[in-house]
Amino acid sequence: MARKKSKPVEESLEVQQRRKRALELRLAGKKQYEIAEIMGLHKSTISSYIQDALADVTREKAEEYLELELQRLDAMLAAIWPDIVSGERGAEWKIDRALAIMDQRAKLTGTYKAAELKAIADARGTVSTETSSMVGRFFDLLEKAYDVDEASADAGDDE
Known about the structure:
0% strand, mainly alpha
């Protein structure tokens, strides 16, 4: 039987480095066609590199990335929120941006999926105890978080 030909170690290392670079550029916000131009490769190659690199990312790294993205979204919202609540003239566009930020955050945290599951469960009327418990706990946590944010806002009004 013929032996499978293997690539030289240097070639494999080079591919891994290109995958890493492609993923870094994508995480920095570059589009795939931009990465392809920067790296001098075809867009489909970049797409493959990014998919392969993401497949190699551990759950821990994914959680770190999620946390970083949530922090970025929170910082963006915090930057425009004072103008929105003060009713600053000309800040109407910031409301749209705030809604987009909130939408992205809800997608990342799975809020929409939980609400969808609860609505389906309520519509069906019969829900497994486990599902009911999970969804119920989620909404209890959301309610507590909202109460804490509301209390903080009220405390800030007193000052």
